[in-house]
Amino acid sequence: MNIITITVNKKEYQVIVKPHDTLAKVLRDNIQLTGTKLGCEQGSCGACTVFVDGKAVQSCITPAMRVNRSTIITIEGVADQNKLHKLQEKFVEKGAIQCGYCTPGMIMSSLDFLKENPKPTRNEIKEALSGNLCRCTGYKKIIEAVEEYANNEQPSINDDDKYKMVGHARPYIDAAKKVQGIADYTDDIKIKNALYCKFIRSTHAHAKIKSINSSKAEALAGVKAVITGKELPIKFGVLPISEDETAMAVKKTRYIGEIVVAIAADTEEIASEACKLVEVDYTPLRPLCDMKESCKDVGTDEQIHSHCKFNNNIHKKAELRF
Predict the structure, then answer these.
(1) How many whole angstroms separate alpha carbon 161 and alpha carbon 183?
(2) Beta-carbon neighbour count of residue 256 at 10 Å?
(3) Are residues 15 and 145 both part of a single domain?
(4) 297 and 267, same structural domain?
(5) Distances in Å between the alpha carbon of 257 and those of 65, 164, 226?
(6) Which of 161, 190, 219 lies at the terminal end of a domain, its last residue?
(7) Are residue 13 and residue 123 in the same domain, yes or no?
């Protein structure tokens, strides 16, 4: 354990940190500033972007120990009290927010970029934001918001039009909260005595599960449960046109990343450590990588799903007549 001193949004904090703690964890869990979002936790998506001593960093991969005595600005520190920053206003005006999860990182990255290049071209904006991933918007409105802010363009709605609804775009009701990082998402809600769950996922595209040895994980202090596909054999339907599937892999895996083991523990750290103690033994099977291969007759082992009605991997045949 170590104590670090950091200044966050003009307020000084002393925080007890562990060697493996990240800046994102300190901001979210210790200081309760949840506007900094966790997406990939690998430094790839940009959702966790903050300023450290004036420079944009990805806080999910920044060790907390490294920012001792640093000055940090998060999305919560961008607005001037209750008045939005003009870039935040542009995000609201242009409808550059949908789910809003990526928005704090988008704004922080944009502000960092605009310090170096205050009058960028559209292509330069695209390049600058290429490290920030957004699933919802298609980026168009985000790029327009940054572009209009940089060009100091004023809102196009005049006083006579601002109260009209029909024929005018209206901002999302929670847009202001999202651009300030104060909207609550599921991951931001802390429940007392809640357990933390971590998954072990398949490293094979197609394989039989020979054995799972979880005894060491189960013996680790703080681990409350270790669950495999054997405990969840019930199939749950997702789409009417598809066969039901199990929540976890049972006997075999069908894609890289399929859940094989789930571990619940008192803390996220314990759950992560327990995952390292589980031994999964696979027998790799031949993966089918194209449509022609999937249409050929195969043995039972090479059928992706046991409920296939044919001797291949065709899921369903439909005859259409016109």
Answers:
(1) 29
(2) 13
(3) yes
(4) no
(5) 32, 49, 18
(6) 190
(7) yes
pLDDT tens digits, 43-86: 999 999 999 999 999 999 999 999 999 999 999 999 987 799 99
CB-CB contact of 264 with 224 (8 Å): yes
Query: Which structure tokens are listed for 263?
Result: 């571990």
| Same domain for 71 and 10 | yes
CATH number of the domain within which 170 lies: 3.10.20.30
pLDDT digits (tens, 9 = 90+) for 234-293: 887 666 666 678 889 999 999 999 999 999 999 999 999 999 999 999 999 988 888 887
**Angstrom distance (rounded) from CA 174 to CA 99:** 10
Structural domain tally of the chain?
Answer: 3
Could you tell me if 257 and 305 lie in one domain? no
Q: With b meaning 16 or more CB within 10 Å and e meaning fewer, what string describes 289-310?
A: eeeeebeeebeeebbbeeebee
**Same-domain status, 150 and 224:** no
Q: CA–CA separation, 126 vs 103, rounded Å?
A: 15
Write out the residue range of the structural domain in which residue 306 sits.
292-322
120-147 pLDDT, tens digit each:
999 999 999 999 999 998 899 999 999 9
**pLDDT in the model for residue 43:** 95
Q: Retrieve residue 206's tokens.
A: 């197609």
Mean of per-residue pLDDT scores for the chain = 91
Phi and psi at residue 124, in whole multiples of 5°?
Answer: -70, -35
pTM, whole model, 2 decimals?
A: 0.78
Q: 171 and 134 in one domain?
A: yes
